[in-house]
């Protein structure tokens, strides 16, 4: 919603966003990037000063994320490897056949590929996940159509969009963009992201009115947000 800028701080470069909040929010993202959300009129110098005071905490957060990333094995694309679908672990069964495809059978994701190499299996699996994402998200968004109509809000329309640091976004015309990676998360978390974006159709920022509406529609949102942050995609 608001312009972003990159600023230099004692802890390295950081993305600075503005909102109508009253205090500065500092976040360290899992990749180590720093994201700042400052009040509209806050001086960049003051922001930089505050970040410097939190340099110790930022370093600690980065260390924690580094350790978590090191402990997480990379996704594998062979029989027996596990992948998450709607928050549940499934094992792969890779079979070499003429046609490429994926089917879910008895807790297994059965992948057919013409050649059992990582790239082939990965492509088949990613295509399948993207398809499931389209179906799942569209169905869940459909549940909001009536709600939006009754409030004279634009009817929500789904767009799948890969975003590096976000799960979703909402536009005033009702377009709700959702990150297809969400398909790996539990369905309650997907519903939280959708509810969050639906609230934006009424309130574009994260102000008190937005928070009150989100709280009303999804009382458990804080727990779901935290759970989503822990999902290993
Ligand atoms: Zn938001």
Topology order in helix (H) and strand (E) letters: EEEEHHEEEEHHEEEHHH
Apparent shape = globular
Q: State the oligomer.
A: single chain
The percentage helix is 40-55%
Q: Tell me the number of strands.
A: 11
What structural class do helix, strand and pairing data support?
A: alpha/beta
The average pLDDT value, as a whole number, equals: 92
Uncertain stretches of 5 or more adjacent residues: none
Specify the CATH homologous superfamily of the domain at 138-230. Answer: Metalloproteases ("zincins"), catalytic domain
Biggest β-sheet description: 4 strands, mixed
Q: Hetero groups bound?
A: zinc ion
Distance between the termini: 26 Å
In the CATH hierarchy, what is the architecture of the domain at 138-230 at level 2? 2-Layer Sandwich
Task: Tell me what portion of residues adopts beta-strand conformation.
Answer: 25-35%
Q: Order of strands in the sheet with the most strands? A: 1-2-4-3
Return the CATH topology of the domain at 138-230: Zincin-like
CATH class of the domain at 138-230: Alpha Beta
Q: What is the count of helical runs?
A: 7
């Amino acid at each position: 919603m608001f312009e972003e800028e990159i600023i230099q701080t004692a802890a390295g470069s950081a993305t600075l966003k503005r909102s109508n909040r009253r205090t500065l929010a500092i976040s360290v993202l899992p990749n180590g990037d720093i994201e700042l959300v400052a009040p509209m009129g806050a001086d960049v110098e003051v922001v930089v000063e505050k970040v410097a005071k939190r340099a110790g905490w930022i370093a600690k957060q980065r260390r924690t994320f580094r350790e978590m990333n090191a402990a997480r094995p990379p996704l594998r694309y062979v029989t027996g490897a596990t992948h998450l679908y709607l928050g549940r672990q499934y094992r792969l069964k890779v079979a070499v056949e003429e046609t490429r495809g994926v089917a879910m059978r008895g807790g297994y994701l059965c992948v057919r590929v013409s050649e059992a190499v990582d790239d082939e299996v990965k492509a088949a699996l990613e295509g399948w996940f993207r398809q499931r994402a389209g179906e799942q998200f569209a169905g869940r968004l459909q549940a909001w159509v009536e709600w939006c109509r009754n409030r004279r809000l634009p009817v929500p329309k789904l767009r799948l969009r890969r975003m590096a640091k976000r799960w979703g976004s909402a536009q005033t015309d009702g377009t709700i963009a959702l990150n297809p990676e969400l398909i790996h998360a539990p369905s309650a978390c997907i519903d939280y992201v959708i509810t969050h974006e639906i609230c934006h159709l009424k309130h574009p920022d994260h102000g008190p009115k937005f928070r009150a509406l989100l709280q009303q529609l999804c009382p458990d949102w804080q727990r779901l947000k935290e759970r989503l942050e822990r999902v290993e995609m």
